[in-house]
Specification:
- The protein is of the alpha+beta class and about 400 residues long.
- It is globular and about 55 Å long.
- The termini are far apart.
- About 50% of the residues are buried.
- The structure holds adenosine monophosphate and glycine.
């Protein structure tokens, strides 16, 4: 099979790595890809959101399957453009991707499907959560515990969106639950946790994610199936009834409250950096499962989770999430890889033949091991050997999970 992967982040590098192990893969292409993906396939200078150019590329390559990694092209309707032209796509239509693209739509679907989620509030009063509707790369949500935080959040949210939602503040631990979906059926993947705040101890601003680990204690296959029955499957049914069946990865961000799991948000794709921890734990044929899901026939999948654990640490630019770093030389990846660690590129570029920084989240260092503690130790040992000017990472990724 010839596969075209859309996107250029660490999640897409992890997808490229996993897909390149598929028995049926003949050619892997990426648009636009990154220097890490270029070691596994051919990168094409086509923007991930340029549906017309993607369609032309898929045509010229005679692509058998397009896999869309990020949310922005899906919400923009890239999958529809390709599908209308007869190109098979793993990724939801614009209509189904609204589950991520519009928080008010997601709330409406959850209400109709009877899925537990935070209650909306008609006025902002502490404590509450204020959300800018629409995609904001994890930066449009403000947790407010007093009036001053509410005032700041309302002003900030107004600069991001015309539509603002207020909801009750939920307390508990967060977990990410992913399912491969074929429009009607959901296939469970390992649970993961990510670390959204910029600083250690979950302090500082929200980011796209500073690290992740998988699996999560207490969430084996039986527990995940229970969550899929309560959350993912009713939402799939509701989207199908509305004429927008969901094909792709449905990702539920849950808060484990004293009253049970409640949905914080849905995403229409793999988490980044959760995918970097989750995909190395899968044994079997991801491409086969994606192909079956795309054809609407995901009756079973040759995919199982190993008993291992994985930890991913994000190496970020000094100013992330406020700023990016461009053009600084990166050292030490080869020795980390030689030690058996996976290094997924997120924001890198080639300057001549030198690898340099090119973004906010620069690299993802992923290690597997028998336990979370084991994987964590290996991941951090590898981080020590990598460097670029201003490199910054959280030292407490998966620390609690490693200690219980
Ligand atoms: P979202 O983009 O909706 O997932 O929100 C990003 C992050 O904000 C979540 O991962 C939570 O940490 C936090 N968050 C969102 N909604 C709530 C809520 N109702 N209660 C508490 N925290 C929330
Ligand atoms: N890691 C959070 C996300 O991908 O949305």
């Amino acid at each position: 099979m010839k596969v075209l992967l859309v996107g250029s982040g660490g999640r897409e590098h992890a997808l490229a790595w996993k897909l390149s192990q598929a028995p049926k893969l003949e050619e892997l292409h990426a648009a636009p890809g990154n220097p890490g993906i270029a070691a596994l396939g051919t990168c094409h200078p086509v923007h991930a959101e340029d549906g017309e150019a993607l369609l032309a590329l898929a045509g010229s390559l005679a692509t058998d399957l397009v896999v869309v990694g990020p949310d922005a092209p899906l919400v923009a309707g890239v999958a529809d453009e390709l599908r209308q032209a007869g190109v098979p796509v793993f990724g939801p239509s614009r209509g189904a991707a609204r589950i991520e693209g519009s928080k008010s739509f997601a709330k409406e679907v959850m209400r109709a499907a009877g899925v537990p989620t935070a209650e909306p509030l008609s006025v902002a009063r502490p404590p509450c959560v204020i959300k800018a509707d629409g995609l904001a790369a994890g930066k449009g949500v403000f947790v407010c515990r007093d009036q001053e935080e509410i005032d700041i959040a309302l002003r900030a949210a107004a600069t991001l969106s015309d539509s603002i939602l207020v909801e009750e503040l939920l307390e508990g631990e967060e977990i990410s639950i992913f399912a491969l979906c074929d429009g009607a059926r959901a296939f469970a993947l390992p649970a993961a946790q990510d670390f959204k705040r910029a600083e250690e101890g979950d302090a500082g601003p929200n980011t796209g994610g500073m690290g992740s680990y998988s699996p999560v204690r207490g969430f084996g296959l039986a527990e995940i199936e229970g969550l899929l029955d309560a959350i993912h499957r009713p939402v799939l049914d509701e989207l199908a009834v509305r004429g927008t069946p969901f094909v792709g990865v449905l990702y539920a961000g849950l808060m484990l409250t004293d009253d049970g799991p409640q949905v914080l948000e849905f995403n229409c794709r793999f988490g980044d950096p959760e995918a970097q921890s989750l995909l190395p734990l899968l044994e079997g044929d991801l491409l086969g499962a994606m192909t079956a899901a795309t054809a609407g026939g995901l009756l079973s999948a040759d995919l199982t989770a190993t008993k291992n654990a994985a930890v991913t640490v994000v190496l970020a630019a000094e100013d992330y999430p406020g700023g990016v770093d461009v053009g600084s030389p990166i050292e030490g990846i080869e020795s980390a890889e030689a030690a058996g660690t996976l290094v997924f590129h997120a924001g890198t570029a080639l300057k001549g033949d030198r690898l340099v920084t090119n973004g906010g989240r620069i690299l993802n260092v992923t290690a597997t091991g028998d336990t979370v503690a084991d994987a964590r130790e290996r991941a951090y040992a590898a981080c020590e050997g990598i460097s670029f000017p201003g490199m910054r990472y959280r030292r407490d990724i998966a620390a609690m999970a490693a200690h219980v």
